[in-house]
Amino acid sequence: MPPSPWRVFWGLLEHDLLITRKQLGGVLAQVLMQPLLMLLVFGKVLGALGYTPPGYARLLLPGLVALNAFFAAAQNASFPLAMEFTTRTIENRLRAPVPLAWIVVERIFAAASRGLVTAVLMVPVGALVLGELSWRTAGLPAALGYTVLGALAGGAAGVTIGSLVSPARIGITFSLVMPPLLFTGSAQFPFPELAAVPWFRALCALNPMTYVSEGLRGALTPQIAHLPGWLCALALALALIVLTPAGLWAFRRRAIT
After folding, report:
1. 58-74 per-position pLDDT tens digit
2. For every residue of the chain, which 3-state class applies, written as one string?
3. Domain map (residue ranges) of the chain
């Protein structure tokens, strides 16, 4: 009797989580460095020099948590997947007795777990750099929900990219795609205050990371301008509805060629 799809799914996920645990040091060094430097420079150094307003670091840190959730998941889904398709090691997974959709969803969950870990670890790093957080503790459950949704959206985006792009081009693809996503994700500024720049506001509205950043600000620092929580949750759910089928389509297209 073949194993149930759930058993195969959890077996694959446990394997990927074991690899994540073994590679955790390298993963953290890879994905925490840029947010840490941004927080140090923009949150501390420029503030001490008077170039950023008081309290800017409080605005910035939730955006950097969102950045880690989304980008760490996207990066850790796309790079390994592109390599596995090239070396054909992906065939071991394709032989698993489950529908293809289960394999794709498992990869999204595995990548999201890395994004979630790096996002959570950004919190003590931020507290260490800033000295205090002053977050609303009642908003922590909602903040965790937005972080999970953001990591899942990043994982789905990463599966799509990793299935479409070869390893030789994955680096240049990230260098071309990710910076625009980074700087339109409302990590460094509140989305509601972009009314004076409508064209840039429209670009930010198309970026799923915007709704992770805004959701975290609304949950943790409600005194800062932010989008309504329900809108952020709805936008992230829609992002998953779009990105997950896109990842499945790209993965199936690559797998059968």
Report:
1. 888 899 899 889 988 99
2. CCCCHHHHHHHHHHHHHHHHHHCHHHHHHHHHHHHHHHHHHHHHHHHHCCCCCCCHHHHHHHHHHHHHHHHHHHHHHHHHHHHHHHHCCHHHHHCCCCCHHHHHHHHHHHHHHHHHHHHHHHHHHHHHHHCCCCCCHHHHHHHHHHHHHHHHHHHHHHHHHHHHCCHHHHHHHHHHHHHHHHHCCCCCCCHHHHCCCHHHHHHHHCCHHHHHHHHHHHHHCCCCCCCCHHHHHHHHHHHHHHHHHHHHHHHHHHHCC
3. 5-255
